[in-house]
Write the structure tokens for this entry.
Amino acid sequence: MIFTYNKEFVGDVLMVIVANNEDAKLSVERKGNVARIFRQDTAETVAWNIFQVSDIVDIQQSGQIFLTDEEVALLNQELAKEGFSETLINDLQPKFVVGEIVEMTAHPDSDHLNICQVQVAADETLQIVAGAPNARLGLKTIVALPGAMMPKGNLIFPGELRGEKSFGMMCSPRELQLPNAPQKRGIIELADSEVVGTAFDPAKHWQG
């Protein structure tokens, strides 16, 4: 679940992204200051717009924001007041973490893509299809997990690349908009001593 807010350019509207619309046709159901955006084919909710949100919670930041459980509870009260039965579930887990490539095989339908098994926690490994020229077995890098928002605003959701499932993205310094990032292809390379699953910290993980 991703919360975004930009009062200057969008207005006093909190946008809550809960699922990938997968380019499906969408419809909107609005009740009072709450709008539910859902897929026409499945009726699955993919986003919420909560208008005049400053009457509910105080938001000072712009872009992707992170709310407390108490603030999300207030938003759920607003949804219920307007007659919606669904609730927002806060997700405070880091979405950019240290990962390690533990398996790598060439994509059967590409001359530059690899199918990587990337450990992102002590008990979790994700399949990520990547075209980074410096990807290699044992490399530690920064992984954007499903539900992440990149600095440019694009969202990371599970998908497929040439028929192979991919559940995240290994990031380059340029994609993370790190200072003095080299303007060339290649994922960030971390020291072998970095611990898998650690939340990304630019001050710690980049000395560009």
The first helix runs from residue 69 to 81. The chain has two domains: 2-82, 96-199. The chain has a mean pLDDT of 93. The CA atoms of residues 98 and 196 lie 5 Å apart.
